[in-house]
Amino acid sequence: MNPIAIAIHGGAGTILRALLTEEKERAYYQALQDAVEKGHQILAKGGSALKAVEETVRELEDCILFNAGRGSVFTHQGEHELDAAIMCGATGMAGAVAGVRRVRNPITLAKAVMQHSEHVLLTGEGAENFGHQVGVAFEPEEYFFDAFRYEQWQAAKAEDSIKLDHSAPILPDKKLGTVGAVALDAAGNLAAATSTGGMTNKKFNRVGDTPIIGAGTYANNATCAVSCTGHGEYFMRAVVAYDVSCLVEYKGLTITEACLYVVQEKLKKQGGEGGLIALNTKGEIALTFNSEGMYRASKRNDEPTYVGIYE
């Protein structure tokens, strides 16, 4: 019997026990467990890796704790600009959206781009128009409002700075908020999906690595599936997700070796902070980060669910 497996992340950065109340910590653990087990249940019933990553990321987008979908951060204009991407490891097909507004589940719109258009990446108003055509759900601005995110935005505006998500009152503001999933189904196929609200107080329609295939999201049955979370500019410059795949394909590294080399050496040397999740067709999982923490969870076959937050 082929293995099935799924791994998820909900952002990385300055995540320390001292900065999370017990109540908030429990909420994160529960949200991560619920999402990863939902995706695993799809796989256990014979569902595809593509369906599992989409539904898992939708679950995280609907949770206000994470910087994606409903919980997204505010832009400089006080709006929400959402990015997402999805990729099928069996076919190499991919879909992505960037800078979309009021889309309840950007990952579903990205999947529609992959399945119902001849394109890979749609942006802004055009992507929204396409979303209306294919019938994805839109929500009013109030749906995306969160008091904590609003306070982050006001603080960033006062400093005229762009902030990575997850503020820490006694430490630099470092939470690299994105959500993502990678999955392996019983047919031996891989898929990856990633979604984000980007940076607090971002200007000029800034787009990070999440919707860029090969930078923040990548899947190939011959190598691995990867979803990244971090300071997007560094992940784009290093083409992180594809680099992990290349190290497996061309250098023969294990998935763990490839992830460690990219995240702990190459990214660190450039000043890039964050992490990634990766999975191969053997069901081997890597949850790798160079920050103080990363919201993460995984489940393989009938093994116990793993959930982690801190280093």
UniProtKB/TrEMBL annotation:
Active site: 178
Positions that bind substrate: 206-209, 229-232
Gene Ontology biological process: proteolysis
InterPro entries: Ntn_hydrolases_N, Peptidase_T2
Family annotation (CDD domains): Asparaginase_2
Single annotated GO MF: hydrolase activity, acting on carbon-nitrogen (but not peptide) bonds, in linear amides
Superkingdom assignment: Bacteria
Residues at the site labelled Cleavage: 177-178
Keyword Nucleus: no
Keyword Protease on entry: yes
Key words of the record: Autocatalytic cleavage, Hydrolase, Protease
Identification of the protein by name: Isoaspartyl peptidase
